[in-house]
Amino acid sequence: MDAFLQFLLSGITNGAVYALVALGFSIIYNASHVINFAQGEFVMLGGMATVAFMGLGLPMPVAILLAVAVSVLIGLALEKLAIEPVKEGSVVTLIIITIGASIFLRGLVQVVLDKEFHRLPAFSGETAIPIGGAAILPQNLWVLGGTAVIVVALWRFFDHTLMGKAMLATSFNKFAAQLVGIDTRRVLLLSFGLSALLGAVGGILVAPITNTYYEIGIMLGLKGFCAAILGGLGRSWGAVAGGIVLGVIEAFGAGYLSSEYKDAMAFVLILLVLFFMPNGLFGRRDAERV
Known about the structure:
Layout: H1 2-32, H2 39-55, H3 60-83, H4 91-112, E1 129-131, E2 134-136, H5 138-160, H6 162-172, H7 174-179, H8 184-210, H9 216-231, H10 236-256, H11 262-276
Antiparallel strand pairs: 1-2
Helix pairs in contact: 1-5, 1-6, 1-8, 1-9, 1-10, 2-3, 2-4, 2-8, 2-9, 3-8, 5-6, 5-8, 6-8, 9-10, 9-11, 10-11
């Protein structure tokens, strides 16, 4: 029972990070129907930029704020310089551009910073907290609490602000949104900035637990994409649920079967979802009246 609780806590913590990455995928997909395969690189940028700013002697809170700001600016630049010029291009073209951007960002960090592993100091100590027969690190609580705050903030943003409602309107029907005066180009720009912010925060929260390096975004991005598909691509609550489910399945699989299969489970799971539930756990079935 103690092992069960330990695996559950570990899975929920990992799942919270996957949920943040999946939310980034969903926000951009809703605004443009583009799958941004550079989403994992925003996670990497958050952690690596914080390490770099702390290396300049800045205190951690300042370094974190600057790292998030840099990630958001790079997200905005990606949309403005790479996506907007080919706005009439096919979805496949846009996806290839995001893959190219992902490779470019990894190379840039490798050259400007380094290829070493780095670990941020824990935000509030490293003494494990006993829960039942299991234990949890204070940093895990930061990950869970930070994810919860972001989810609530996003809900408030989409339901209680004009820009949030404009983004929702664009996701439902882009043409109709343009007819009522919504600047859909601005919505798309904001969606890239918002998804970069989510990725950077996730990378900073998890860096004291898993280390950070220039290629960490590859696997986190793929698992975040799996979580988004599992929950139903474009569904915010589905992305959160998909991330938690994926994290828990990984943790139990690694604990009760073998840790060697941990990374493979996400891809087996996505294949099963695509075969048997192509709309994900919470996606709606498309219907067309003829």
